[in-house]
Amino acid sequence: MKKNSKKKKLMAAAAGLALIAAISGTFAWITSQDQRINKVSSSAVVDNSVTINEEWEPKPLVAGTEATKKVSISNTGTASVFVRVSYEEVLKHLTDKGNVKYAPTTGTGAVVDAKYVYEANDSGLDKHMPVDTLVTGYVEATNVTGLESSTKLFVKGGRIVDGVTGAISYNDEAKVVHEYTTGKYQVMNATVSVPNKDTETSNDAKDWTYTVSDSQYGYYEDGYKHTVANWAKSSLEDEAGSVTGNALLGTSGNRHGVTYNYTTTALDLVNIPGESVTTNTAQIPTGAGQKAVQADTNATGLGKSEINVNYTAAVIGQAGLAAATDNWIYNSEDGWFYYTQPLKNGVTTAELLDKLVFGSAMGKEYTNASYDLVVKMEAIQATEEALTDSTGWKLDITSADKPITKAIYDKLTQ
């Protein structure tokens, strides 16, 4: 777990380690952070005294399904702490939102790179990518003229002769594909004809002689792109040791057994955007139930809201804050979910969320998409000063436009 270089690791510390006076006269508050990456396409690892606990069941992005994702926080040290949690998101999706285009590589309407050239571990960013297809149930035809390089004709069915009347009918189907690497096929459109269909001696379509023309290749224009979102500005160093406002975005590495690369180069982004504190009620929970995430909702992403977080009954709104105990509240002024009481040693919080839900209206926009939800946590010593100090969370409790922050501060310090 990373920690601020000016801060000390949370541990079973005596009261004398509660805070350390800095030469400047300010204080460096004992702080800690943790992150977990959930990929949609980790037994708990305790490497510090305040950790994210998670029960995560990875599943593909399939409409109308859900994936278990239970998140809580544990304090295994001896000092009480304040805890807050937020998200960073990375959504990889098709640039043209699942629309399929067809084009030849020569002649009228040619798109030279419509025909995919295979690359191992191809990210597919900012380049045309193939629309994959299967040939299950088909047999390759060998008597074919007009095929372009690396393309094949697969067929099934053939001629049917009625055993009683002798009547002849056909149920043959043909499929031209581009085999861009062994066993991987790009869908194509083409004209397929059987010049002598009625006189073919075999009833099996695979034995016939074919002619193929007008070949076009199916592709996703401009391939893939990434849409990222950072719900809240991090106060501590990122995974690379810099104070950027992010926890993992902009860095690469391995967190709790999950390898990731969120650098600008890997994401094909000019820069990592700053925090986006949502005030969208469709994304803000005030009780149990589903709420949208930011990445797919983003207008520069998919403009849809089919990836949802299911929050537990431990989540409350501001109206329930006064009576809250083992609860969570979202602060729309800074983007963090705050645990509503000091987290004592040996105690685990109520679960903040319990699953991800993929909406039934998830359409072609989500084709081949992958989604990473980074749950990031910050913990700080449970003192009033740590909440507002410049080396703590710097909560603004004096501004008239920060009523939620002030209410959370009052609750935590009562």
TrEMBL record:
Keyword Signal on entry: yes
Keywords attached to this entry: Signal
Signal peptide residues on this chain, from the entry's feature table: 1-28
Record protein name field: Alternate signal-mediated exported protein
Taxonomic classification: Bacteria, Bacillati, Bacillota, Bacilli, Lactobacillales
